[in-house]
Amino acid sequence: MLANLTGWHGIAVLAIIVTSTPGTLWVQYDRPSGRLLLHVLDLVEARDWIDLIKGRYERLLLDVIP
Length: 66
Fold this sequence. Notes:
The chain is of the alpha+beta class and 66 residues long. It has helices at 8-20, 46-64, and strands at 24-30, 35-40.
């Protein structure tokens, strides 16, 4: 999944939110590529999780944290 957040504050808040979500774990963030690696225990459709993280959390953080 590619992250649109680039600042450390936004990335840190997103990491806390994702890791606090039951069944998910933030594994790695590659800053040069902007890629996030998440572990999701009950993954059925990867696209659904990507849309959830980007739409529900990342999009809102972009409005609050530059």
